[in-house]
Amino acid sequence: MLQLDPSEISEVIENGGVIAYPTEAVYGLGCDPDNAVAIETLLEIKQRPWQKGLILVASDYSQLAPYLDDTQLTTKQLESVFSKWPGPFTFIMPIRSNISKLLCGSFNSLAVRVSAHPGIQAICNSLGKPLVSTSANITGQQPAMSLDEVTAQFEGVIAGIATGELGFDANPSTIIDAISGKILR
């Protein structure tokens, strides 16, 4: 399977490709959050119902802002979110009304994270926007933890794999509701 550096990956993503890439804990599958065909392809590959929604990862908050309605959050709530980023914390946040249901699923919110992972930072900086993120596995199976596992599940199905190493987190990111502060995972 084709291993690509961040600039090559961004070109693949901009052309509608679905890629695998290392994250803080597991390999992820990603695509352009503004390309409905790419999102549908990702959901089909993963066999994930659209109703469950997806995560967006970014290199900084400004990349997420066009998708979110942070006017529904208090200053204190936003300060709590920002105090944990960049890092392994995914927040459920209110969305703008024009967000694709393919991203938010059957919810009126979106899961978002500003990642500290250097590979994710490089991809998002090259793209100039966030990346759709979901674990690299068929729904119901264990997430891929190595290039071999990604290749075994997705050879010939995805457009490539971003070069880089997994982070050192033992578990996927903690998920927190930005409004209530409740930890969901």
A few lines on this structure:
The chain is α/β, with parallel strands linked by helices and 185 residues long. It has seven helices and nine strands.
Task: Please characterize this protein's 3D structure.
The structure is a single chain. The longest helix has 11 residues, at 36-46. β2 and β3 (27-30) form a beta hairpin. The protein is globular. With 185 residues, the protein is an alpha/beta fold. α1 packs across α6 (118-127). It has a nine-stranded mixed β-sheet with strand order 1-8-2-3-7-4-6-5-9. It has seven helices and nine strands; from the N terminus they run βαββαβααβαβαβαββ. The chain has helices at residues 6-14, 36-46, 61-64, 75-83, 101-104, 118-127, 147-154, and strands at residues 3-4, 19-22, 27-30, 55-58, 89-94, 109-114, 131-135, 160-162, 174-177.
Number of strands: 9
Span of the ends, CA to CA: 32 Å
The biggest beta sheet reads: 9 strands, mixed
Count of discrete alpha- or pi-helical segments spanning 4 or more residues: 7
Poorly predicted sequence stretches spanning 5 or more consecutive residues = none
